[in-house]
Amino acid sequence: MKQLKVFGSLVKDSFDIITKGTFKYHVWMGFLTLIMLIGMYCYSIQLEYGLSVTGMTDRVSWGLYISNFTFLVGVAAAAVMLVMPTYVLKDIDFKQAVLIGEGLAVAALIMCLAFVIADMGGPSVLWHMIPGIGVFNFPNSMLTWDVIVLNGYLFLNISIPFYILFRHYQGKESKKSVYVPGAILSVFWAVGIHLVTAFLYQGLQARPFWNNALLGPRFLASAFAAGPALIILVLAIIRSFTAFKVEDKTIKKIAMVVTVAAQINIIMLISELFKEFYAPTHHSESAYYLFFGLHGKKALLPWIWTAISLNVLATLILTFHKLRNNLKVLYFACFILFIAIWIEKGFGLIVPGFIPGPYGKIAEYTPTGIEIGVTLGIWALGALIFTILARVAIGIETNQLRYRK
To answer: pTM of the prediction?
Structure first.
């Protein structure tokens, strides 16, 4: 009963802190709410008329929704780059950022699930995914593996920070014997969620563009570049607008993770390009369409070359020690790297896998306003959830929130 009373007090105090703040904070929350309402309106149209209001067709059946899902799985997995040094290697420099990283993982996973629901057409078909009720088809279907690893990782990233913050809220130290085993498990689970997602694409024999042994490792490399890059940008905002102190050396250590991952990602990209274009076969047509266009169709050319240019520029900036240690330059490099990988792992990976079709027909894909509206609404939902989680966590860590007996 005592713990329930403490939990009730935490909920009440959390509600107080998330509903109060500066004018800028209220503008930010109001802006996110507006975008979410626009997204809900667009989604209501999709529910009424079906997926015909999107740009997806029977030729290109995965578009903007699955592109964002694939990217956000990587953002969620990136929290492990803070969890492992903090909880496993006991590096105190990462300790300031680990709760923020795990909050970002929770928001990213919720967005992943929202994008899957949007892509399925509506929530009414979700019962098919419930074991024992629907046709779950485990372990034969890679989709069911993906459902298990994503929900399992979401549980880990909610339960571990909640335990630590709940103890701190009561003015007590968290017990390592309780949370360290879960933290170690989350390290392996984070790798698993991205590898399973990569295997989901690799297992589709009819899509040669995804039949690449490097797909899984490259998923991890791009995730460990884009995710920590976003964490750096978030930490920069947090330390500018809140009392939560983040040391420069913490940001610089995370920047090293981003740099190494970005360099590995570039090397793997070059390896993929060599494989596709040095001795091309008819299976290289998807890559030709993506990078050079095919039979006059070239909708993705501006996207992919923008992504590659930004990717190379960001990696070069991060590689030079003096540039990386300049925080303003670092923030710029992280921003363009995040955009580059979002394009590359989204449009640059998902859409070309369907082009050309099985009979050689090229049907290009362009997202509609409805799709864009729903997508922006889901991103706003994720930003709102993260803002709430971060505000409560910062309140507890800075002693603003404490249980009053």
So the answer is: 0.92
